[in-house]
Automatic annotation (TrEMBL):
Function in brief: Catalyzes the reduction of ribonucleotides to deoxyribonucleotides. May function to provide a pool of deoxyribonucleotide precursors for DNA repair during oxygen limitation and/or for immediate growth after restoration of oxygen.
Keyword terms: Cobalamin, Cobalt, Disulfide bond, DNA synthesis, Nucleotide-binding, Oxidoreductase
NCBIfam families membership: NrdJ_Z, PRK06556.1
Coiled coil: none
Family per record: Belongs to the ribonucleoside diphosphate reductase class-2 family.
Name assigned to this protein: Vitamin B12-dependent ribonucleotide reductase
Residue ranges occupied by any Ribonucleotide reductase class II vitamin B12-dependent N-terminal domain in the UniProt entry: 47-137
TM helices/strands, residue ranges: none
Any one Gene Ontology molecular-function term assigned to this protein's record: ribonucleoside-diphosphate reductase activity, thioredoxin disulfide as acceptor
Reaction catalysed by this enzyme: a 2'-deoxyribonucleoside 5'-diphosphate + [thioredoxin]-disulfide + H2O = a ribonucleoside 5'-diphosphate + [thioredoxin]-dithiol
Enzyme class: oxidoreductase
Region (Disordered): 1-24, 883-910
Cofactor: adenosylcob(III)alamin
Length: 953
């Protein structure tokens, strides 16, 4: 696919490199003489992003330029996250062309300066192909590339970092500083604390050492203070401790004890929800914790024998513990609070390409990047759905040839980036330039499997996933060998050549041994086999340019940028999706992958339409007309009536792991009913199946997570009946965590503002938030105080009509015309607010007695002499307007979900839509930026509304 030609050496090259040659770049998608920008239709859009809970505008940029096929969500996220320059200034980027050009031109120049291309024509093809692939959402670089490349700030291209710490105070303080600088830049880091002597060992002065758990407190406080990139989300960090460290039990129990503290404080009335005012008082909440186990320990668990904990200073065993009991403690802790995860040390280092330089001791925060200490990895992910095609006969196929060509293009670009990249510390820069670790991966696997008629938890699904992963990594290392022939192997290759070639043989052998299943995966396996044969042949001759090539990352924000339905290696969240519309509004649609899957399974068009209609009504395929029960599993999702079993997730990870340089970012979700024994089984099977790392999450194990309505009902039903004492004072009725609401923008006499009114699910208005003027101003402060006073009164039982009667007709400036057709004139802002609330929440008779009518009612009075609707019209009184009004939405493929009172409930993300459809509460935090419910992306959480993540870039 790629040829090389001799040419003069230019720019810097790795030590020991051969005479420079240049790559011949092959066209994949582009046409000679035609720029990719000229082949698409461009349009201008306005991006206005608000927090739906309080109506505040988070971001606004109007007139941005994007292709017409880009979704609203992708446009919003790229504009708000990746465009550089101050908003409102002439220097602000306003077109996707500017963003792509800023990045691609930097890569092209660095490639030319460092001798990557055989000729200027090849450089131009590289430029055009990279532009096309980014423009058409075929792949994306990780977020730091979009943040930094081509700007005046440091050219950081990596999102993943591994640090190191030694047993000295100087090293520990360096750890705090280095970690803080990485967090400040919006990235995350991980490290292993096992070199620090335990609290059971002595210092040279004679006293007892503090131990790593003690020093974790300082690092946790630092991370919590700095946050990540100055945002309100937590920093992303991973802390690892070896299972033979004498303080391992204390490490395992750190978060369990803090969780108990959270429960006690919550019961005492403190706000311990995620983002609550008091949650910051607990420790160890800013890191993911993992125990690094070895084969010796796991075999001791298997046999039920003793295991030695070793001194950090002498290496001698200072304590014997029951391995099975220690393993049980790990599972109990994970059951209680999701930490610690587990990393399999011997498996990790068995696949290590550079063991002569040092062992792999840690990972990045999401556990997909695993390599040397003080190193980094830049990531890029391919959108797998872009390679699913129909052949001439109308049959589906995965375009393995085009996929391999795009992998070659992306790997070339990723390696070029190391030539100009900046790094947060000199040590990380030195290691990364010497070993050139890359992390190519993919997204949309779950969508691809469903579209091709494969169940996620099936032999066929795992075979296709394994084949694609093998082809991706094999092609990456083949290109790495070709790059080594052009610009030389990585500096550390000579010392590690035998080990690197051994690992390549291990990958090739795993590819050969993998089971072929059907017409879709078999051609991909064949292409992968050819790639691995080339890897062995070319690697023997030229070595390799990169010590690492592939990982499976969460693909959070960049997955949204590419309009992917699923992130990383994850299955689909649910069969019904939440979709934003151009011009505002949203609708719910059945996944586009469902009809493709049904067609692949042999269903006729009429049957497909009937099944899709059933899914639209019910949110699942159970009892769908004409759908065979044996096909139900194809439509199993991460949540819902038919959710994928925890072991199904583990088996999918095992299918991909032998074909990855690094590991997989994924959390295995388990139901709340899961037992400690089941977690033990998951952790043990992960070792048996050859995984490198694993983490579980049991639903509702975190105190700070929302409690489902079902759980609340069960709790209430379980409470015994007791005789109640009558209290002659008002009792406050607080709103539930999830509550229906509406945000209204208004203008009164030229003054603009926002009002958010939230109601009890079945019992009328419960709180009001008003926003006017700038935060910190006198008016804003008075509005906040007024809102709180009214809200508290409502929750203590003051009727809304009492407020309406007192505050309507109150006169003061600003007053005059409004932009509300129901309230054309207002004598003050307060007059308008309570007229609007009356229209939204009071029954017809009540507000009619107060002289408050809608525009429609006033028009009816002019025509008929009566404000009341005719008998054949909607019974407004019967609807009892106890829930907020809703603007008519565009017609949807899905019936509108409703609250317990029968009023429509509004969804703001796919996760919230699934909650409504299935009547459950997803175990996920709310986005701090826009208030929507986030969803899982690997080991972290992703906000579909604004692209924010809980720790991963």
């Amino acid at each position: 696919m790629t040829e090389t030609t001799s040419g003069p050496a230019r720019g810097s090259r790795s030590k020991g490199s051969k005479a420079n040659k240049g790559l011949r770049i092959e066209r994949i998608h582009t046409t000679p003489g035609v720029h990719p920008y000229d082949e698409v239709v461009w349009e201008r859009r306005d991006v206005v992003m608000t927090n739906w809970r309080d109506g505040s505008v988070n971001f606004e940029q109007r007139g941005v330029e994007f292709p017409d096929f880009w979704s609203v969500n992708a446009v919003n996220i790229v504009t708000s996250k990746y465009f550089r320059g101050a908003v409102g200034s002439p220097d602000r980027e306003a077109s996707l062309k500017q963003l792509i050009d800023r990045v691609v031109r930097t890569y092209r120049k660095a490639g030319e300066d460092n001798g990557y291309f055989a000729s200027p024509a090849d450089a131009e093809i590289f430029d055009h192909e990279l532009t096309y692939a980014l423009l058409h959402q075929v792949f994306s670089f990780n977020s730091p590339v979009w943040f930094n490349v081509g700007t005046k700030q440091p050219q950081q291209v990596s999102a993943c970092f591994i640090l190191s710490v030694d047993d000295s105070m100087e090293s520990i303080l360096d750890w705090y500083k280095e970690e803080g600088m990485i967090f400040k830049g919006g990235s995350g880091a991980g490290l292993n604390l096992s070199r620090i002597r335990s609290s059971k060992e002595l210092l040279s002065s004679g006293g007892n050492a503090s131990g790593p758990v003690s020093f974790m407190r300082g690092a946790d406080a630092s991370a919590g203070t700095i946050k990540s990139g100055g945002a309100t989300r937590r920093a992303a960090k991973m802390v690892v401790l070896d299972v033979d460290h004498p303080d391992i039990e204390a490490f395992i129990e750190t978060k369990v004890k803090e969780e108990e503290k959270i429960r006690a404080l919550r019961d005492a009335g403190f706000d311990m929800d995620l983002g609550g005012d008091d949650i910051t008082s607990v420790q160890y909440q800013n890191a993911n914790n993992s125990v690094r186990v070895n084969d010796t320990f796991m075999k001791a668990v298997e046999s039920g024998s003793q295991f030695g904990l070793r001194s950090r200073m002498t290496g001698e065993s200072i304590e014997e513990v029951d391995a099975k009991a220690l393993f049980r403690k790990m599972a109990e802790a994970a059951w209680a609070c999701a930490d610690p995860g587990i990393q399999y040390d011997d498996t990790i280092n068995h696949w290590h390409t550079s063991p002569e330089t040092g062992r792999i001791t840690a990972s990045n925060p999401c556990s997909e990047y695993m390599h040397l200490d003080n190193s980094s990895c830049n990531l890029a992910s391919l959108n797998l759905m872009k390679f699913l095609q129909d052949d001439e006969a109308g049959n589906q196929r995965f375009d393995a040839e085009r996929f391999a060509k795009v992998v070659e293009l992306v790997i070339t670009a990723m390696d070029i980036s190391i030539c100009f990249a900046d790094f947060p510390t000199e040590k990380i820069g030195e290691t990364t330039r010497a070993f050139r670790q890359l992390g190519i991966g993919y997204a949309n696997l779950g969508a691809l499997l469903m579209a091709t008629g494969h169940a996620y938890d099936s032999d066929g699904g795992r075979a296709l996933a394994g084949a694609i992963t093998s082809l991706m990594t094999g092609t990456s290392y083949r290109r790495s060998a070709e790059l080594a022939a052009v610009v030389g192997p990585y500096e550390g290759y000579a010392r590690n050549a035998d080990a690197h070639k051994r690992v390549m043989k291990q990958h090739s052998d795993a590819n050969a041994a993998a089971k072929r299943m059907d017409d879709l995966d078999t051609p991909v396996w064949a292409a992968a086999t050819e790639a691995w044969q080339d890897v062995l042949r070319l690697g023997e001759k030229s070595g390799f340019r990169n010590a690492q090539a592939s990982v499976l990352a969460p693909t959070g924000t960049i997955g949204l940028m590419m309009d992917c339905d699923t992130t990383g290696v994850e299955p689909d969240l649910a069969l019904v999706k939440f979709k934003k519309l151009v011009g505002g509004g949203s609708m719910q649609i059945v996944n586009n992958t469902v009809p493709k899957a049904l067609k692949r399974l042999g269903y006729q068009q009429e049957q497909v339409e009937a099944i899709v209609a059933h899914i639209a009504d019910h949110g699942n395929v159970i009892d769908a007309p004409g759908l065979k029960p044996e096909h139900y599993e194809v439509f199993d999702c991460a949540m819902g009536e038919r959710s994928i079993s925890p072991m199904g997730h583990v088996r999918m990870m095992a299918a991909a792991q032998p074909f990855l340089s690094g590991a997989i970012s994924k959390t295995v979700n388990m139901p709340e009913s899961a037992t400690v024994e089941e977690i033990e089984e998951i952790y043990f099977e992960g070792w048996k199946l050859g995984l490198k790392a694993l983490a579980i999450y049991r639903d509702n194990c975190k105190v700070g997570q929302p409690l489902s309505a079902k759980k609340k009902e069960e709790k209430e039903q379980a409470e015994p009946e007791v005789e109640k004492v009558v209290e002659y004072r008002p009792v406050r009725k607080r709103l539930p965590k999830g509550r229906p609401g509406i945000t209204t923008s208004f203008t009164v006499g030229g003054a603009e503002g926002y009002m958010t009114a939230n109601s009890y699910p079945d019992d009328g208005l419960g709180e009001v938030f008003l926003k006017m003027s700038k935060q910190g101003s006198t008016l804003a402060g008075m509005m906040d105080a007024f809102s709180i006073a009214v809200s508290v009164g409502l929750q203590y039982g003051v009727p809304l009509e009492t407020y309406v009667s007192k505050f309507t007709n109150m006169r003061f400036e600003p007053a005059g015309m409004t932009d509300d057709p129901d309230v054309r004139m207002a004598q003050s802002i307060v007059d308008y607010i309570f007229r609007r609330l009356a229209l939204d929440f009071l029954p017809f008779e009540t507000r009619s007695a107060l002289g408050i009518h809608s525009a429609e009612e006033r028009q009816r009075h002019l025509e008929t002499g009566s404000y009341e609707p005719a008998e054949d019209e909607v019974d407004v009184e019967g609807l009892a307007q106890s829930a907020p009004r809703h603007v008519d939405a565009p017609k949807s493929d899905v019936s509108q979900p409703r609250t317990a009172s029968g009023a429509p409930r509004e969804a703001h993300s796919s996760t919230e839509l699934v909650e409504i459809q299935l009547g459950l509460n997803a175990d996920a935090p709310l986005c701090f930026s826009c208030g929507t419910k986030m969803r899982r992306a690997g080991s972290c959480y992703l906000c579909e509304g604004c692209g924010s993540t809980s720790g991963c870039s």
